[in-house]
């Protein structure tokens, strides 16, 4: 799923853009998460709970669906987090999915709590 996810969400011009440019694009756009930001930070399921993680991933996609800057938002989070795991939904994906994307880029990302 990660490959398709990466292809779908990080296609376009966001990958590798400077953080400042990504911030400018994200902050200058209307964003669904600004209305109820707490929804984007629901408690994340344990790594051993595959079904709960699937549900959380579906929720993440639904929350960010239609956001005009989802690719920029995801790329910005990936660059800001570096190898560290983040928290919450960003760009339609959960933190463990972002870690998978980073691994896909060849980054050395710890497996702590991941699957
Ligand atoms: S992609 Fe999601 S988290 Fe990012 S700005 Fe859009 S709604 Fe907010």
Give a quick summary of the entry.
The chain is mostly helical and 115 residues long.
Terminal-residue CA separation: 13 Å
Average pLDDT for all residues: 88
The number of E-state strands comes to 0
- Judged by helices, strands and strand pairing, the structural class is mainly alpha
Bound molecules: iron/sulfur cluster
Rounded radius of gyration (Å): 13 Å
Number of helices: 5
Poorly predicted regions: none
Percent in strands: under 5%
Number of structural units classed as domains = 1
If you had to describe this structure to a student in words, what would you say it looks like?
By secondary structure, the chain is an all-alpha fold. The chain has one domain. 47% of the residues lie in helices and 0% in strands. The chain is built from 5 helices and no strands. The protein has helices at 2-9, 19-27, 50-64, 70-81, 95-104. Helix 2 crosses helix 4. The longest helix is centred in the middle third of the chain and has 15 residues, at 50-64. The radius of gyration is 13 Å and the shape is globular. The relative contact order is 0.20. The mean pLDDT is 88. Iron/sulfur cluster binds next to helix 4.
